């Protein structure tokens, strides 16, 4: 089982070192690291190119530079070039637990033998608040298979760490709008869920996560309001999917709220 660790990055030279060091410490060494630089203006290129020559690691590193186009475009680029059986996205401000790749390699073969499974997931560890996952932390079975689009109905909460089967994920590339730089990841997750794919969830942590002030999570309203085509696509497809009214209510209310923000000229 060969793993492609994928990291999209933009001006994150200050945090990439922590991720690199966690890769060097992995208990499993059959992997590559793909870094897609989304137009950074800091010293990201020099940093990564220095690591490529560093004898401290035994895994290949591939650095790909693209003009600033957004994380979703970087994702498409990384996925199209990945050679691993598993495609494991890890953001540039996160870092892996020492046994993360070993855990993925141990559980992926059985999951992949089921044609319904598109990914396995572990939980994320937040230094201040602990583990995510909700019911995944208390389940009595080894794992739980779930649909990403309605996972909250099963009590699965918080952001998770997904490792995808590369060829199955390639069926679902991100849509790209040339005049926008953000499309919600939920577009892809909802599409493969509506196609019948499931995720196999485990309780073990795969990486440590920290949301930085300039990151996507802390700037949601601005991102969605200024990238309206991608956001509208997400809401439109969710509203037409076969999930409960309850599952649609909060995203729909959020959409109306952001319509008001646009009318008021917020984030121009």
Q: Helices and strands in order, then pairings?
A:
Blueprint: E1 3-9, H1 13-24, E2 31-37, H2 44-52, E3 61-65, H3 71-81, E4 86-89, E5 95-96, H4 100-112, E6 117-126, E7 130-131, E8 144-146, E9 160-165, H5 166-169, H6 186-194, E10 198-208, H7 220-226, H8 228-239, H9 245-263
Helix pairs in contact: 6-8, 7-9, 8-9
Helix content: 25-40%
Roughly how many Å is the radius of gyration?
18 Å
Shape: globular
* End-to-end Cα distance: 47 Å
Strand content: 15-25%
Which properties best describe this structure?
21% strand, 36% helix, 9 helices, 10 strands, 268 residues
Write up this protein:
This protein has 268 residues and is α/β, with parallel strands linked by helices. The protein has nine helices and ten strands. Strands 1, 2, 3, 4, 5, 6, 7, 8, 9 and 10 form a ten-stranded mixed sheet that branches. The N and C termini lie far apart (47 Å).
């Amino acid at each position: 089982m060969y793993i492609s660790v994928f990291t999209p990055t933009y001006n994150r030279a200050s945090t990439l070192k922590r991720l690199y060091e966690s890769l060097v410490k992995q208990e499993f060494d059959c992997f590559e690291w793909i870094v897609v630089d989304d137009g950074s203006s800091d010293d990201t290129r020099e940093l990564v190119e220095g690591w490529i020559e560093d004898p401290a690691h035994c895994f290949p590193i591939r650095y790909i530079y693209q003009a600033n186009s957004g994380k979703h475009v970087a994702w498409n680029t990384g996925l199209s070039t990945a050679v691993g059986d598993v495609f494991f996205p890890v953001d540039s401000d996160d870092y892996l637990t020492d046994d993360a790749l070993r855990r993925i390699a141990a559980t992926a073969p059985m999951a992949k033998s089921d044609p319904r499974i598109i990914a396995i997931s572990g939980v994320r560890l937040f230094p201040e608040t602990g583990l995510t996952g909700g019911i995944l932390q208390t389940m009595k079975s080894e794992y739980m298979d779930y649909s990403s689009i309605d996972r909250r109905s099963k009590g699965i909460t918080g952001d998770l760490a997904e490792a995808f089967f590369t060829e199955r994920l390639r069926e679902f590339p991100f849509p790209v709008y040339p005049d926008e730089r953000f499309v919600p990841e939920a577009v892809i997750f909802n599409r493969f869920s509506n196609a019948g794919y499931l995720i196999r969830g485990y309780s073990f942590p795969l990486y440590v996560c920290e949301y930085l002030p300039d990151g996507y999570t802390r700037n949601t309203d601005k991102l969605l309001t200024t990238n309206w085509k991608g956001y509208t696509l997400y809401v439109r497809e969710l509203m037409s999917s076969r999930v409960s009214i309850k599952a649609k209510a909060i995203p729909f209310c959020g959409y109306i709220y952001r319509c008001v923000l646009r009318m008021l000229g917020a984030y121009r």
